[in-house]
Fold this sequence. Notes:
Layout: E1 8-11, H1 15-26, E2 32-34, E3 48-50, H2 56-62, H3 66-72, E4 80-83, E5 90-94, E6 105-107, H4 108-117, E7 124-125, E8 130-135, E9 141-145, E10 150-153, E11 155-158, E12 176-187, H5 190-193, H6 195-201, E13 205-210, E14 213-219, E15 225-232, H7 237-240, H8 248-258, H9 264-272, E16 278-284, E17 297-299, H10 302-305, H11 313-330, H12 334-363
Parallel strand pairs: 1-2, 1-11, 2-7, 4-13, 11-17
Antiparallel strand pairs: 3-6, 4-5, 8-9, 9-10, 12-15, 12-16, 13-14, 14-15
Amino acid sequence: MNARFARIAVVGAGPGGLICARILQVHGWSVTVFEREASPSARTQGGTLDIHATTGQQALREAGLLEKFHELARPEGEVWRQLDPFTAEVLVVDEPADGQAGRPEIDRGQLRGLLLDSLAPGTVRWGCPVSRVVPLGDGTHRLLFEDGMAEDFDLVVGADGAWSRVRPALTDAVPRYTGVTFVGTGFDDSDTRHPAFARLVGNGTMSARSGSQALTAQRNSGGYLDAVAMFRAQEDWYVTAGLDFADTAAVRAHLLAKYDGWHDSLLYLLRAGDRGFVNRPLYALPVPPAWDHVPGLTLVGDAAHLMPPLGVGANLALVDGAELALALVAHPHLDAAVRAYEEVMLPRAADLAARTAQGLDHLLPPEGAPEPAPGARGFEA
């Protein structure tokens, strides 16, 4: 069918889905975004993202949002410091050459707000969780919602993340545990309440690692420090340890014992985090991501190619969403546009997924693997 008049549904109001909708609307197209969250403020959006000049920023440029992005972004947040875990000595400082920031930071919530504000009112239907997608046999698909309602579309774009409800209509691939867990915490008003630790972190990110363990802290906007303990463990490690994450004191004591021997100034992030602890096991889709083309259906971002969070995910989601929208605008026929998008996206995702898997092993080496040299920041897109 003529792509220009297609009924298009985007499932998921994350970066990939929102930028796809934005670019379509810039070109005068109609699109509806369905989001399971009840409102934009239903939950916090997590920490900070580095948006790369050649990927995420290029997508924002196509959406006409790059200038507004730079008004919110923090170029100083690009500075990265590696510390010795046992002495807290600064081993490496990585910062932009000649002050040319190529990966400025922005809070996830700020990026989402920027994209949401750029859409026509009513584009996003909040509180509309999709349960599954049903093919109708003619290249169209029916969205079934958890409340029992249904709507039909000529193109359904799955932008609904790791546990996508759209993906099963394309492939039986499911995320698998990588063997690595992040446990997050953080500090409010860091400059005044935690001045020594704030100085240790600097303006961007601090990392210390030994073997298969690491501690990181990253500055967000508003004086907030996001902190993460990273380690290799069984997926149910906290069950084996008899931990309940509602018991902050018990989780804190367990982590302090796990990092026993690390410098006291680094252990401060485990002692002083004032937002409790959140368990975040890392999952990834099988490599390479692949599926047989299905007319009227495709995926962007983590729904298509969930991979370890090493600075690639948000950038790739933005590129996916932008390229899909631009392909739809450029091709007169809907199916040709989706095929053109997938022919570029899938090989790129396969390459990056393989490299991020290697990067995770470099960041937190499996047992018996050699320790990475100081200054090896890990995977970079």
